[in-house]
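Subject: sequence -> structure tokens, single chain

Hey, anyone have a minute? Need the predicted structure for the following. Not urgent.
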Amino acid sequence: MAFSDSAGQKYLALTGYAELLNDRDRIRELWSIPTKAWWIGSVDPYIRLLKIKPRDAQYWDSPGTVASYIKMIAAAVSDARPAIGGHAKVRM
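Reply:
Had a minute. Here:
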């Protein structure tokens, strides 16, 4: 799974194992009016839940596009690696 906040230059990627569930009670619990844009109601037979058991996650953040380009140009001129934002990998 991947999530991004492109305006804030933050990104998250999860890897793991997925299970498709047809838990009708849980579907009714999670149902909300905005979901009616995709399904007729909580009783729609096509609704399923996706349960994710994460194995690891990685995130990246950046100071922003303009600042990143300036750092990349400076690194290219000086033969150094740019220090752009943070990155970490977490095992779960």
